């Protein structure tokens, strides 16, 4: 197939449409599960599958045609009334929708054919549909599945490094017998013995094991099975099982072809190169290291490489996969669907603007025309920004599937209630908030909502409710994730915090302060690591993501009644209401929502950097000193009081220049590590003003203050 | 190549953790003053990692004294284990 531009363009359109159709398919199936006899829904779902098949055929995408044909056939029987909708049927069909989606994404990434992994997955899914097919109609399915389905477990080559514990011989664990056993699950193609650890003759204890073995094993058994061979010696031995060098490429290919995932760990486990056990161990090491050094956790990939669990090329491939996932997501934001009426409105405004502009040239009424131009510019800007606004409902409704799947997995009954889906926000924001939201939703399902039996014991209905609510509030959008689960356990959080050294033992904390602790790094009260949460990606990451979007997050909870997590975000990232201040020749913008008031700096010498504000002590930061701005301070200085997480701090400046709405221009890569500055903007005069990032600014300062104060005391 | 003769040591029974200390003693004391060792394994019925280690240790010691070290006549099962560790027998050389 020639990939000329026309074709590619058409394919792009197909991909966009197909995504919608897959979404329709999924939504419809979920709907059918709730209302099995909804004829209209059956029709919609059938049509979606039918259209998918038809358009795939236009592009000669044989694999898609074959696959969707079977799905369509099954849905056809449902439509004809030959087949009833059962939970089992929906559960078999939903992954099919996923599979079609994955193949579409493959197309979007330029892969016209499914890879081996996808083909195998497809065959498996079709096999699951077999019971629902009318007799004789499955032929096409098996036909399509044949090439991939025949060979279920291809042999893979592994390199095992076995360094047995010194006491293994005494414990009756003879390494040689393990080698012999390995021959029973595969072919041992090469063994080499490493005797380098043998000590000098007189020190050598004949009953201690000094030998290490390198084994090449060719086996169709999954890695878990090979790992299980060494179950009994795992404790004191160093057993590493890595793919043989000449197979690295195969893994790298397999990983490239894997479905999208945000988590390197999932990609690695999915490829079969790492087992769950190894991943748990690596995560434990990661957390321990982070807790010990008090720094950011080392990336999990690094730990896996460092401990010889996974060769670097494979980790790199997995990281690349993850990056691609993120990239393809951010690429999504490069195209946007817009309500035509909004676009028309904008074009209309621009037209008016041009007319108003030309009328300013006329002598009579120039002043009035100028005013009109200003008004129109303002409106144009508003409606241009509105183009980026999308209702948040689409994103929230995606969680229906998550809630369903997780509920099934955890054996919990949960209904999802979505309100406020009409609230609009910046498309870029919607996309960047969906991951943190997903985490919150999973968290609620996993830890918040109790199992049906436990709920009934507490006199609640067996079915839990998860609410997603969105609303506008004072120039920002608020998204709430609430559950009617068990609520947060204040005592346990506090105990954990003391144990982790986050809080001093015996400290008196308000409830809110205690609950906020869950957002601290490495803080998980989950006692067991489940598949869903408690995997080290915690609430701290959620908070970091939210803060990165200039938002805030808070938690409301009542024991036994439920928990609400509230995320507050600005409507858009592109514009900020700022307060312009001057220090010497430099200008700075303080985000207006942070400013509480402005006062004059009291004259006279001030011993420490704090002042008296209506009887309260207000610490302040001299921006001139902080940024090393040359020149003498103005005779009369002002203090801009900002509030950050309930703490008030003053910023001492020379001049207050007033409010303004500014378009944020991001800083270059060179400055990306800069704290305290979040961006820049260009002023009417053409000068550049830096936008202060109040959070880090205040936090940094109070940290320095602590240090300064600690010194004389010591 | 050497002027002196290889000293012959015959091991028999099992060459395992049960006998490892004894075997180590025998082999290492036989080494000094000899023209090298020829270890006759014909009587060895069983070998494990401990036994293998002792042989490897003896070979290393012999090498450090620049003495030859040979293994002869192992039973097939024993030969297979020796091959794992890269210990070849005299007949094959």
UniProtKB/TrEMBL annotation, chain A:
Its main location: membrane. It comes from Actinoplanes auranticolor. It comes from the Bacteria. The gene is cheA-1. One of its GO terms (molecular function) is phosphorelay sensor kinase activity. This is Chemotaxis protein CheA. Its EC number is 2.7.13.3. Residues 565-703 form the CheW-like domain. It holds the Pfam family H-kinase_dim. InterPro entries: Bact_Chemotaxis_CheA, CheA-like_dim, CheW-like_dom_sf, CheW-lke_dom, HATPase_C_sf, HATPase_dom, His_kinase_dom, HisK_dim/P_sf. GO terms for biological process: chemotaxis. Keywords: Chemotaxis, Kinase, Nucleotide-binding, Phosphoprotein, Transferase, Two-component regulatory system. It is found in: Cell membrane. It catalyses: ATP + protein L-histidine = ADP + protein N-phospho-L-histidine. Involved in the transmission of sensory signals from the chemoreceptors to the flagellar motors. CheA is autophosphorylated; it can transfer its phosphate group to either CheB or CheY. The modification Phosphohistidine is found at residue 50. Residues 372-573 form the Histidine kinase domain. Residues 3-107 form the HPt domain.
UniProtKB/TrEMBL annotation, chain B:
InterPro entries: MlaB-like_STAS (IPR058548), MlaB_ABC_Transporter (IPR052746), STAS_dom (IPR002645), STAS_dom_sf (IPR036513). Coiled coil: none annotated. Residues 1-93 form the STAS domain. It comes from the Bacteria. Pfam families: STAS_2. This is STAS domain-containing protein. It comes from Actinoplanes auranticolor.
